[in-house]
Amino acid sequence: MWSEVTPVQIVSWRMLNRLKNETWAADLIDQMYLDDDNLEWAKATGDHLDSDADDMHRDSNGVLLRTGDSVTLIKSLDVKGSQINAKIGTVVKNIKIVSENTEQIEGKIEGQSNNYSYKIC
Asked: What pLDDT is stored for residue 119 in this prediction?
């Protein structure tokens, strides 16, 4: 966290926020300083939010997903109840979050609206 390398500071901030329930981690977070741009970058994953990580939709890179985001498929998916096979690299625009299941999103591929399951790697 004391590194002069900005990406190291960002990763340190994110890791400490994952452990913020520990007294020592909370103390270290209080001692850290990040300028506004770097703090915004650090917060991009949503690690600082108080909600449980299990209740959050994240992509394969750990970035928090929200309704209206676009995602690119990292593997081909057979769409349940359809003949469509969504190929790797397909962009799903304007997704909707399925609140009951953090491993599902809703989106349109080829004009059809369906639920697409994804597994966070």
From this structure: 46
